[in-house]
Design brief:
about 650 residues; alpha+beta; seven-stranded mixed β-sheet; six-stranded antiparallel β-sheet; 23 strands; globular; disordered N terminus
Length: about 650
């Protein structure tokens, strides 16, 4: 990755990192990943044949990274080069580099620990993308079902995905094709209306999902999977960018929103129907083939979490998923290899198309067109499925309404870029994420989490505190970099990744964030983790460690800066003096609430029927509607509410 490169448009552009920045990153990777066993070595500043060049592997991912984030990364690399001032890091010999990296992990400086962690994660992504690494560990990405495999999709299952000409007209244009947009489009099309669904990302399925993890991140995720809510700590929050939205790359877990949460929506936000979603939930669950995971075939990762829960007398149960008889699903984040997971592109969208809807892929909505207060259509760029292309202008005219379903980031972003001002002033605010972390345990047996169901089992003992544990095996590409140690020690743990079981800790948050447009025109996401929520996450880490030890783990890896392992005898001390929020290594997968429903136009962005307060013929049908954190995976709640919004629209248009 030097000099200039050519895009598919023929334009020549500079690589994301300068030559000096590339040298720093290679020097870091070489120190972290020497050859151990069958693991190949990472390339150094002067790459040698047979080594893993993380810089070349990362180039497409960094090119998809938000500009603001890339600037921050480049500054981090420049700063790290001088962390051993007056010596340059990349000029140090390998032992000194390893000593310096190990020291950062134990540093009292949070900034230094964060800097080391950032480079560890980045280098880890590039390193584990090499197939030789997975082969050395023994990991294979595959899916399997009990019984016959799903039938192959027909050719062009969603019809012609390319826009015809520079303009189209319809009754309803739906912006977004995920759990909300696909369901709303289906309801409207089956009611006899002309529906057009717009999706910025490409159409991919079991015949075309990328094989390499980094290629999947670039092809299936917004920002190449590097969308981040800024704060202390920053919270990576990956969301989908493909036909089917985030349902293509999520775990497939299906929960109904707890009755007490729905009750608060009714009493606090004036949503009278909140407790009347039974019909919608049943329809969605039937359509998505939702069923509990079979504990006998879910694999050792889930079984160990169950055994730990049983040993401690905790409340536990198998998760419900939209994958029917799936018994192995180690490729969920990269697209289901069999499409056994009933994501929207293989469930609702074909049904919508059968009813007459049209789907357009690679079409990014840029601005809502208003005629006074009435939403009359959308200005777009077509041909942008490949992010290297600028695309061409494309306009959609909507005779009846515009329905926004771009998710909790995309919907407020489009409204803000359209200069819409919500009467409540709440647009983009009230962001909830369900901040999460994972805790791993190493066992004296082969767990081989990739041979089972990726997310399989739940412990809900502490649901009254908003803490949910979900047995979730973290794929090597995402989990390998979190393993403790430097150099040979880290690589030995990497080789033993098949002995690691893991569980996620997932919090129903009171903390909140905001989606806004920055001065440079980029999307800005911020999130402030409150002390109360940080302490609850620490509580969850302690409980997860107890579960793993009860199941037989010999060491436990908490995702806490400065804490390499959490010994059994130190759990009480950890709980008595929990780490500060900034020390938690978090991620999130459930953004919601940024256009929340409320019957009062002074408190919400949308009405209980999904209509946007202060506008006409403009509706929302996605996670941004949710008035509060719901505490569980939101996919089928989004779908159920979208069905209600769509049904109301269809009835009013009849």
């Amino acid at each position: 990755m030097t000099g200039v490169t050519a895009t598919q448009t023929g334009a020549r552009v500079r690589p994301p990192l300068s030559a000096a920045e590339q040298r720093t990153l290679r020097a870091f990777a070489e120190a972290m990943a020497p050859a151990v066993g069958d693991l190949p070595p990472a390339a150094g500043p002067d790459p040698a044949p047979g080594t893993v060049d993380v810089v070349d592997a990362l180039e497409p991912l960094l090119a998809a990274m938000p500009r603001r984030s890339l600037r921050g990364l480049r500054l981090a690399l420049r700063g790290f080069e001088w962390v051993a001032f007056p010596r340059r890091f990349s000029r140090l010999d390998l032992p000194r580099r390893r000593t310096l990296i190990a020291g950062l992990e134990r540093s009292r400086s949070a900034a230094k620990r964060d800097l080391g962690l950032l480079l560890r994660l980045l280098a880890g992504l590039g390193y584990t993308n090499d197939r030789r690494v997975a082969e050395a560990v023994g990991q294979r990405s595959a899916c399997a079902v009990a019984g016959p495999e799903p039938a192959a999709p027909p050719e062009a299952p969603l019809g012609d995905l390319e826009p015809a000409g520079d303009e189209e007209e319809c009754d309803f244009v739906v912006v977004g094709s995920g759990a909300g947009g696909a369901v709303a489009a289906t309801v409207l099309a089956e009611a006899g209306h002309e529906v057009l669904v717009l999706e910025a990302g490409p159409y991919l399925d079991r015949d075309s999902y990328p094989e390499e993890p980094l290629a999947a991140m670039v092809g299936l995720y917004r920002d190449g999977g590097l969308t981040v809510a800024e704060g202390r700590p920053a919270v990576p929050t990956p969301v989908g960018r493909a036909v089917g939205g985030t349902t293509v790359i999520n775990s497939g877990t299906c929960f109904r929103t707890p009755a007490e949460v729905l009750g608060r929506w009714a009493s606090e936000h004036g949503i009278a129907w909140a407790g009347e979603l039974e019909r919608e939930y049943e329809e969605v669950e039937r359509m998505l083939d939702v069923a509990p995971v079979d504990p006998e075939t879910m694999g050792r990762n889930g079984q160990l979490i169950r055994e730990g829960a049983e040993a401690l007398g905790l409340s536990h149960a198998p998760l419900h998923r939209n994958a029917g008889r799936c018994s192995q699903c180690s490729s969920c984040p990269n697209g289901c290899r069999l499409d056994a997971k009933r994501a929207m592109h293989v469930s609702y969208l074909p049904r919508a198309v059968a009813a007459g809807a049209r789907v357009r892929a690679g079409v990014e909505a840029r601005r809502i067109n208003f005629d006074g207060e009435r939403a009359a259509g959308v200005d777009c760029r077509a041909g942008v499925a490949d992010r290297s292309r600028l695309g061409r202008p494309f306009r959609v005219r909507a005779r009846r309404a515009v329905v926004l379903a771009g998710g909790a980031f995309g919907t407020p972003e489009l409204l803000l870029r359209s200069s819409f001002v919500s009467p409540s002033g709440e647009l983009g605010r009230n962001l909830r994420l369900h901040p999460a972390t994972w805790v791993g345990g190493r066992f004296d047996e082969q767990v081989r989490g990739w041979d089972g169901v990726m997310q399989s089992y739940a412990i809900d003992e502490w649901k009254d505190r908003g803490v949910l544990l979900e047995a979730t095996f973290t794929p090597l590409a995402f989990g390998g970099a979190w393993l403790p140690g430097t150099g040979f020690e880290h690589q030995q743990r990497m080789l033993a990744y098949g002995e690691v079981a893991s569980t996620g800790i997932h919090l129903s948050d009171r903390s909140s964030g905001r989606v806004a447009i920055g001065g440079d025109g980029s999307l800005r996401i911020s999130y402030r983790l409150q002390r109360r929520d940080a302490e609850l996450i620490a509580f969850g880490i302690a409980r997860a460690a107890e579960v793993l030890y009860a199941a037989g783990a010999r060491e436990v890896y908490p995702q806490v800066s400065g804490l390499v392992t959490l010994p059994r005898g130190r759990i009480a001390d950890f709980e008595a003096s929990p780490p500060p929020a900034r020390a938690l290594r978090l991620e999130a997968f459930h953004p919601m609430g940024t256009a929340r429903m409320d019957a009062d136009p002074g408190r919400g962005v949308t009405a209980p029927d999904g209509a946007v307060h202060g506008a006409q013929s403009l509706y929302v049908a996605d996670a941004s509607l949710l008035p509060s954190s719901i505490g569980v995976n939101p996919m089928i709640t989004i779908a159920a509410i979208a069905a209600r919004v769509g049904r109301g629209l269809a009835e009013r248009a009849a």
